[in-house]
Amino acid sequence: xxxxxxxxxxxxxxxxxxxxxxxxxxxxxxxxxxxxxxxxxxxxxxxxxxxxxxxxxxxxxxxxxxxxxxxxxxxxxxxxxxxxxxxxxxxxxxxxxxxxxxxxxxxxxxxxxxxxxxxxxxxxxxxxxxxxxxxxxxxxxxxxxxxxxxxxxxxxxxxxxxxxxxxxxxxxxxxxxxxxxxxxxxxxxxxxxxxxxxxxxxxxxxxxxxxxxxxxxxxxxxxxxxxxxxxxxxxxxxxxxxxxxxxxxxxxxxxxxxxxxxxxxxxxxxxxxxxxxxxxxxxxxxxxxxxxxxxxxxxxxxxxxxxxxxxxxxxxxxxxxxxxxxxxxxxxxxxxxxxxxxxxxxxxxxxxxxxxxxxxxxxxxxxxxxxxxxxxxxxxxxxxxxxxxxxxxxxxxxxxxxxxxxxxxxxxxxxxxxxxxxxxxxxxxxxxxxxxxxxxxxxxxx
Length: 446
Ligand SMILES: [Zn+2]
What we know:
Elements: H1 2-6, H2 8-17, H3 20-26, E1 30-33, E2 36-37, E3 49-54, E4 57-63, E5 75-77, E6 81-85, E7 87-92, H4 102-109, H5 113-127, E8 130-135, H6 140-151, E9 159-162, E10 166-169, E11 180-183, H7 186-199, E12 204-206, H8 214-226, E13 231-234, H9 238-246, E14 251-253, H10 265-274, E15 279-281, H11 285-296, H12 312-321, H13 334-337, H14 340-351, E16 354-355, H15 372-381, H16 386-392, H17 395-400, E17 418-422, E18 435-440, E19 443-444
Parallel strand pairs: 1-5, 2-6, 7-8, 8-9, 10-11, 12-13, 13-14, 14-15, 15-16
Antiparallel strand pairs: 1-3, 3-4, 6-17, 17-18, 18-19
Helix pairs in contact: 5-6, 7-8, 10-14
The structure holds zinc ion.
Zinc ion binds at residues 91, 93, 136, 360.
């Protein structure tokens, strides 16, 4: 930490001493001034901090007084705020918006994923401080086109890392065939994985691998790894986890809602062996949020904030679909199943696997503008130290995404993806719901 502060002044001096073109490129275009900076590395906060931005990148981070702010630099006042790297939500779905019935949703809106639905989700995420997100399952062309349009600055949204369709065993409902690609045999698996990689996906999402043959699973993982793409796999069932581990997947999703009171010892032992080389996005909060919306505080569903950016008829349709939450077939199991989740989460963390913040935003009652802070707060309730939670939504995801040189921390050379929250998440994680400013690639979005 200290080392980086000390190098700031020489860095600025060397910039001003360098040739004109270089100095011009480094001229600050924005200064975030006066807040407490948590840079994502987990060290002590920088009080009264300054972040200088030039164009889309950060040029320096340090203490007010140590970092010189050239006169005339536009500033964002961060007094009273915590200044953090933009959040990275590692499990979202842009093609669904919290509706309670997937099939009906798809009938109504499935042909307008790229033109209508995904841009709403993307903007809600960004406004909530999520400057990067990993999308785990969508129609290939739609998600790739939205990713490109966000990258080109045509529509607002998080930087996207996408899987395209799920790769799985070939039984599902007809309407799902575009975002679930079933494989039949190893050669078919190889071809389909290669096809989506060639199209431009960033990683492969494997589900129901316990229903596939060994040859099929091997073909999926080998093809992905040969192309330098990680594989993340569902972990709802113990058999899914074992098979995923057998084949060397890079990460797991979810903690499952099975009846087992916890992970068995054979799995825990293998997780200890993989340790922090294995990533896990447990998505703890969605079931609690669904239960809250059904029983604890249904009024949440009348909060107008989740309707942001939606046509009124779409929002009304979503609201109507959620009236029946307590009648959902699995809902009656919640009171007995929810207490299992904290146990599994604690077990996972004790093995040393690298857990990351992800929300399943888009599934019933999980709204994109209201998801990420909920997962962070739930982790805090379950005893995770606040700094570790913040790193699980910034540095660790950036590392999984092999993008630590661009995102996930506040340091010179990284994209200026910066959020300001009012108050102190280190003492009260619920302040994460109160994001006051969002800067992405050096541009103030909110
Ligand atoms: Zn999901």
